[in-house]
Design a protein that fits this description.
The protein is mostly helical. It has one domain (15-148). The chain contains six helices and two strands. It has helices at 21-34, 37-51, 53-72, 90-104, 107-117, 123-139; strands at 12-15, 87-89. It has a two-stranded antiparallel sheet with strand order 1-2. Helix 2 packs across helix 3. It is globular, with a radius of gyration of 15 Å. It starts with 11 loop residues before the first strand and ends in a 21-residue tail after the last helix. Mean pLDDT is 88; it is low at 1-5 and 148-157.
Amino acid sequence: MKFSYKQRGGAPVGHIAELDAIEAASIIYLRLWADGPDAQRQVWNEFATTLGPDRGRRTLETFEELCVLCAQHARRPMMRHAVRCKCVGADESCFANFIATAVEGPREDAMLIATLMVRPDVAPLITSLAVEFGLALKQMRLPAPGTFAAETHLAKATLH
């Protein structure tokens, strides 16, 4: 498949099953959030059920702010695949690596990854949000990544 410059971020670079739980969940929640209000309610329900209503609400607010800042200050629009697609796009991989590095790696590395997605002046802010979100994902004790991708390539207004 040939991608134009504008679609490079959607180029498949891996599979959900190859990722660890935090990376896989980061991608799934990003896809769900971008899918609209019904899917966003699903995200809220999962956070509230797993973390409790108070921590779930804080996690939802953190994730929402992270998504909004990434969208508002993005270098270009972030490409995504359908919610249940087994592929991982380049932009999604960058986002997942960013969240995992923010919570488990050096802060400087996470900020460097953030500058690939947003303007440099926004990188410290989204890095702080990514740490908070990633810690919540760790607390959720997520299942193995293979359980996230039951179907592939649903027809949506996404790349595939």
